[in-house]
Write a structure and sequence with these properties.
- The chain is α/β, with parallel strands linked by helices.
- The chain has helices spanning about 10-15, 20-30, 55-65, 90-95, 100-125, 140-150, 160-165, 175-180, 185-195, 215-225, 240-255, 270-275, 285-290, 360-375, and strands spanning about 35-40, 50-55, 70-75, 80, 85-90, 125-130, 155, 205, 230, 260-265, 280-285, 300-305, 305-310, 320-325, 330-335, 340, 345-350, 350-355.
- The termini are far apart.
Length: about 375
C-alpha cells in the first residue's frame, strides 16, 4: 500500500529538499567551487522578550550525522527569544541540500513544544495529556508527541509514536465505544470496558455521550469502580464548562464519590484551562499543541572563508548566545566575553555525534528554564 509520505530514505539522502538547493549543488560543482562557510539558524536576530522552546534537534542530529561538518546547538528544551539556535561549520556543498528538512524538523517541533509548555503552565500542576495526533499526518506523530513531552505534558495518546520515542501511550475510551452499545445503555459500555481492559489502565469514563454530564457521571460512578470521568462536550453544546464541572463535582461528592476525578477535553487552550483548573484534575489538549504555527526559522551564511558575511537584514559573523543569572537571553559576537552561561554547545564534531539525545533531560530543562526566563511572557 502506498501512502502520500516522504520516507526516511529520501530524507537521509537529501531528496526531501527544495529544488533550488539541488540547482545550487550543480552550480557549485560546475564552477569547482566549494567554500568553507558558517551558517546559523535563527528566528529573530535580536532578543524579543517572547520566549519559545527549542525542540526537534534529535531528528536534525540523525540527519547530519556522518557529514564532514561541525554543529553547535542549544540543548533541547532550552528557551530562546532571539539569536542563533544552531550553527553549522564546513563546506557548504556538504550540507546545503539538507536545509529544508532541517528547518522543518525544528520549526514544527519548537512550536508544538512551546504550545505544550503554555498549556502546562496554565494547568498549574494539573495533569495535561497530548491528544493532538489526529490533527497531523500519521508519519509526523512521533515528532509531535516528543515535542509535547519536551514541553512538559504528562502523557501522550498515540501508540506508534510512543513506540518510536520509547514512551507508553495512554487513553481509555472514545464516544464511539459508548455509542456502540446504544442510547440508554451507557452502563453496558462502561462495564464491558472494565471487564475487558487491563486493570493497570485507569477507569476514566466518558460522561456526556447521550445525557446530562451530571447524570452520566453519577451513573458511571455507580456502575464500576471508577477513577474519573471525562467531559468532552462538543463546542456547539458546551456552555459554561466551569459551571458544568462544578456541578459534576458537587453531585459526585454529595453521593459519596469524592475520589472520582474530573478531566476535560475538546478544543482547550491556555485560557480555558486557566478558567477551570481549580475544579478539575486534568486536561486532554489536542489542536492547540498540534496546530501551533511553526516557528519561522531560517538558515543563513554568516561567514565565508573565515570572513564575516551576510545578506541584507541578517547579522554577519559567528555568534554565541547566553543565559544570564537573572534569566536574560543575550546574543554576542563570538569571542566577546559575556557574564552568563554559553548555550550553543557542540552536538556534532566532524560528523560524530558528541551529545546524545535525552528526552527526560529536555523535559527537566524546559521546566527549569520556564522559571528562569519568566515564561510565558506577558
Amino acid at each position: 500500500m502506498q501512502f502520500d509520505l516522504v520516507g526516511a530514505e529520501a530524507i537521509a539522502e537529501g531528496r526531501a529538499t527544495d529544488a533550488y538547493f539541488l540547482r545550487t549543488e550543480e552550480t557549485l560543482d560546475g564552477a569547482d567551487h566549494s567554500p568553507e562557510v558558517v551558517c546559523e539558524v535563527t528566528a529573530d536576530q535580536f532578543p524579543t522578550g517572547q520566549f519559545e522552546v527549542f525542540a526537534g534537534i534529535t531528528d536534525v542530529m540523525a540527519l547530519l550525522e556522518g557529514l564532514p561538518i561541525t554543529v553547535h546547538a542549544l540543548a533541547e528544551g532550552t528557551m530562546f527569544d532571539g539569536g542563533p539556535v544552531m550553527r553549522i561549520e564546513g563546506e557548504y556543498r556538504a550540507f546545503c541540500r539538507y536545509e529544508t528538512a532541517l528547518l522543518g524538523f525544528l520549526s514544527g517541533a519548537s512550536a508544538q513544544a512551546t504550545a505544550a509548555r503554555e498549556v502546562v503552565e496554565a494547568a498549574d500542576g494539573r495533569r495535561v495529556l497530548s491528544f493532538g495526533a489526529r490533527h497531523v499526518h500519521p508519519a509526523a506523530t512521533a515528532a509531535l508527541e516528543r515535542a509535547a513531552l519536551v514541553g512538559g505534558v504528562d502523557g501522550i495518546s498515540h501508540v506508534a509514536a510512543g513506540e518510536q520515542i520509547g514512551y507508553q501511550a495512554g487513553g481509555t475510551m472514545p464516544h464511539a465505544l459508548v455509542l456502540c452499545f446504544g442510547a440508554g445503555e451507557q452502563e453496558l459500555a462502561w462495564q464491558a470496558f472494565d471487564e475487558a481492559v487491563d486493570p493497570s489502565v485507569p477507569r476514566i469514563a466518558l460522561a456526556d455521550t447521550f445525557d446530562d454530564e451530571v447524570e452520566e457521571a453519577i451513573r458511571a460512578a455507580e456502575a464500576i469502580d471508577l477513577d474519573g470521568v471525562r467531559l468532552d462536550t462538543t463546542a456547539s453544546r458546551r456552555g459554561d464548562m466551569r459551571h458544568i464541572a462544578r456541578e459534576v463535582r458537587w453531585e459526585l461528592d454529595s453521593q459519596g464519590h469524592e475520589d472520582v476525578e474530573i478531566f476535560l477535553s475538546g478544543g482547550l487552550g491556555p485560557a480555558a484551562i486557566a478558567e477551570t483548573r481549580d475544579v478539575v484534575e486534568g486536561f486532554g489538549v489536542g489542536s492547540y499543541i498540534s496546530n501551533a504555527a511553526p516557528v519561522d526559522f531560517s538558515m543563513d551564511i554568516v561567514e565565508l572563508s573565515g570572513e564575516p558575511l551576510a545578506k541584507r537584514g541578517k547579522l554577519s559573523g559567528v555568534k554565541q548566545v547566553y543565559r544570564t543569572a537573572d534569566g536574560e537571553h543575550l546574543v554576542s559576537r563570538a569571542g566577546v566575553t559575556v557574564d552568563g552561561e554559553a548555550l550553543l554547545e557542540p552536538i556534532i564534531e566532524n560528523g560524530e555525534i558528541t551529545r546524545e539525545p535525552d528526552l527526560d533531560g529536555a523535559r527537566r530543562r524546559c521546566a527549569t528554564e520556564t522559571g528562569r526566563v519568566g515564561f510565558p511572557s506577558a
